[in-house]
């Protein structure tokens, strides 16, 4: 075996290194806008305390926190991976930050992967924080199905992130901001977070990814299995989001 | 070796030709300037060479590779300074340069690059807090940090004060001495004259003249205008005329000899009156 066997291809940094560096940069930038990250948890926190501890809204079942907290966790994922990500990336694009990166050996798919990975890391930290608040106010989840809950959350992040990057890559930043916020508000209203989602049966899970994700977390964290239709729905949304982003995302 | 070869390049936006059949050939190690008014097709041409934009027709080779289908290894050999200034939000100069340096296989030392662009004092400052000219220098730092074989600079000194421009020119000359091929677009004639080995004037998507800054558009051999004591004469050989005038005892205390400046030639070429 020659000494050069493990050397990278001549003339370029290995793909893994480039993507790892970009993930680090995304996380660093996220940390720099720390106040925005905390603010992004503000609405979910209000919903958690408001709907979870008072009778302000009607929720199904007797255990309000068991209904509300998993919904809030799903809402946070959407808030960060979809709304926050779309707005930030939209402005990065209009400011020329992305075009600058496009001038370097970082590939488009490398950037999309790095952004989604960084968001996944951020989401996990936010979920942990909100779950702790939930536990502090009396939520008592079961951890038997926590792995499937994480798995379904990864699918949700891929779906939201893909859709966010697609929007950010196609529209003007002001339009992205308005659109992503509107979708957030609509999903908050009909996603089964503060009160029951409209009963569309299984079809609802395919139409409303937030409702599907919230129901999956509710099932998993109360100790039951996640329905196959929800896996299917979020896998389809993830496939759609990622495919659209790879096809339509632009640097400039 | 040719660093850049372009034949019959065309690009239209919505039926309007932005680039209407351009041929270019830039040998390795040359500093080549693309000169032209706004909207002439400079940026479109350069962005096609950088692989940022698709062409409609023509053959393009940069470092013997078609930019439209080139991979990461090719991109690692290209340095790009875009027309718009970087707004990297909350990163500091050092962080941004170090970050991009990591994308290249043999980058220059980060501190050295920051020093080269004269931003050592601002190394720890967030890019957002810098002036436009300073941000532009960050762009230049990002363009050269990967030790590119070909460096593209799109109107790099727009918004610079005169001192910063001179400093920037020195930086470009230093890159050229190291053998980097440099393609520069500009609408500043003094910049093209100061830096370029060769330049091409582009107007309405076509190259209307190409040559050295001194020889562009037949400038070196153009007739000179001699003015003295209220008289004006144009001649191919001003020395002869002056000797003759001197012998005749004419008043030469306010004698001037002028040849067309690069600006005169340029304005003639792009079809505008002074």
Tell me briefly what this model is.
The complex is a heterodimer of chains A (252) and B (274). Chain A has 252 residues and is mainly α.
Describe what you observe in this structure.
Chain A has helices at residues 15-32, 34-40, 42-53, 64-94, 97-102, 108-136, 146-170, 173-190, 202-207, 209-221, 228-248. Chain A is globular and about 55 Å long. The termini of chain A are far apart. With 252 residues, chain A is an all-alpha fold. The model of chain A is unreliable at 1-10 (pLDDT under 50). Chain B has 274 residues and is an alpha/beta fold. Chain B has two domains: 2-217, P-loop containing nucleotide triphosphate hydrolases (Rossmann fold, 3-Layer(aba) Sandwich), CATH 3.40.50; 223-258. Chain B is 31% helix and 27% strand. A six-stranded mixed β-sheet of chain B has the order 5-6-7-3-8-9, with helices on both faces. In chain B, strand 6, helix 6 (162-177) and strand 7 (181-186) form a beta-alpha-beta unit. Chain B starts with a strand and ends in a 5-residue tail after the last helix. Chain A binds chain B through residues 8-13, 15, 17-18, 21, 25, 28-29, 32-33, 92, 95-97, 99-100, 102-107, 251-252, and chain B through 50, 52, 72-73, 75-78, 80, 82, 84-91, 95, 99-100, 102-105, 139, 142-143, 146.
